[in-house]
Amino acid sequence: MAVTQTVEQPASRRIVIEPVTRVEGHGKVTILLDEQDRVKQARLHIVEFRGFERYIRGRPYWEAPVLVQRLCGICPVSHHLAAAKAMDQIVGVDTLPPTAEKMRRLMHYGQMLQSHALHFFHLVSPDLLFGFDADPAVRNIIGVARKFPDLAVQGVMLRKYGQEIIKATAGKKIHGTGAIPGGINKNLSVEERDGFLKDLDQIFTWARDALKIARDYSMDHLKELADFGSFDSNHLSLIRADGAMDLYHGGLRAIDAKGKRIFDHVDYRHYLNYIAEEVKPWSYMKFPFIKALGPEKGWYRVGPLARLNTADFIDTPEAEAARQEFMTLTKGKPNNITMAYHWARMIELLHSVEKIRDLLHDPDLQGTDLVARGERRPVGIGLIEAPRGTLFHHYEVDDNDQIVRCNLIVSTTNNNMPMNRAVEKVARDFLEKVEITEGLLNRIEVAIRAYDPCLSCATHAMGRMPLEVEIVGADGRLRARGGKGVEIR
Amino acid sequence: MVPAEPVLLIGYGNPGRLDDGLGPALASMIEARAIPSVTVDVDYQLIVEHAEQAARHKVVIFADAAVAGPEPFAFEPLAPAPVEIEFSSHSLTPAAVLAMACDLFGAQPVGYTLAIRGYAFDEFGERLTPTAQRNLDEAAHFLIDALQSGFQHVNISRALYALDL
To answer: Which of B48, B51, B52 sits opposite A118 (nearest CB)?
Structure first.
């Protein structure tokens, strides 16, 4: 359990939020107030650690794509694919057979669809539909189901479609084995393809509707959202060689808050030349930064907002039209509005459906050339754009085929500093010198939730772990506690 | 939605975390028996689309590992959670799945939980502890008997099997 450094400071009071509801993983937000009830410091702490990188040492490399799915029950497919991409390099493969790459891409777009749908419809929509201050007994998915049943059903069915694609491409829902070093272990049968095509028109309709909801909400509430938890930052993502958004593969591009490129089309196998990680004593989660800028100025955002900002274009027509409208809001410059993550996420959801359609019509998915082989290499590095952002897997394998070193930078870790900045911004804007209410504390969670964090993943732990908020005054006494069951003192 | 299929068994948990894999292990054992009219599903955790799946069945059995409680297992009826149910994660409770099956799909499946007692959860590893394995075997024997008999012989004392020991 992490202990804040600030508890013993006599002239401060502390606010701690633990757990933050509707985010994955376990964390704690502490907000330290001074004697004038002004926010002195606000931090998001991550309080569990299980050392997955150590656990995997000694295991044969071909087990990695399956083993890493134990990291997280929420996005196992992202870890499965990132590890498989790393293992492609271990077995000396730089180019997969077309069927293998397209099957992996189909799996990935299914993952993107199900994850984004769940986050928007079931974790975020209660805040948007009922308001940040609504009764928490209503401000949840059951409340949405009762007042907006069609919307809740759409969320379920979109997610289900994505999950079925994962099952068809990965072989099974848990501990999928689809992606293997150098390729894939199955293709898509005509029967499976036709089953997905049958429902595609309905999926498109729901995806377009979801984008419209996110877009309209953002535009209708632009004045209040523009500054909510917002700040300038760098942005990082993979990018295709021609500058298109590519969620499965590409080179690394980083831009600053104004859009100036910091580096571009970097071969991600050299990421250690560009990215470093800082450790802070009050969190188990590390703080990545761009080496050239240093830890103070080099932190960056990843995920849907960053991807929209870094991409020159999207290669599917409906998502590209939506991207152009999205970028118009900031006159083509990077969008640094934290709450714009939701709009960006729904653009990606529609893009994923367009990609799924294109892949289902591609006969390569019924191909039979599934695996390539090359000359063994000692190092494998695989990156992918997971739903929450750029995911790094790095392995070293000895001559006995055993993994001897593993380094993971998961999406939520990349967003560690931005989430801390968002917490601090909201705390200063809303919690100073006012009566603390559940609605005010929920604003902290709203800001964190925009990043769709998966804290269990980020701390290499598994299972369901919540987040809490506590406020402690300058006299050291607890003033309020948020998260499950708000307690105001 | 009118339930068209008789029984759904959902075994859930993480097989990579020792006894947390009891639910998926039970699901595998039941699936291997290919009992007519029983649909078997397995997942890391309960999620929203299980509500849609549950709504298509008359009876839903949620099989999970239990960190505490009766040994070797407890089989109990389950009611949908009340309105103030808390939804705090990507994952749902069994009661919330039933509530969503009702609220979203207008179905009222009969729910049961089968909580198999486990003992070790904090390490990575794809194996069960010996005592958990014995609990699993007893739970599987009980459930196969109940499913094959169409629950005809499952009365409340049998259902609360563990408590009667």
So the answer is: B48
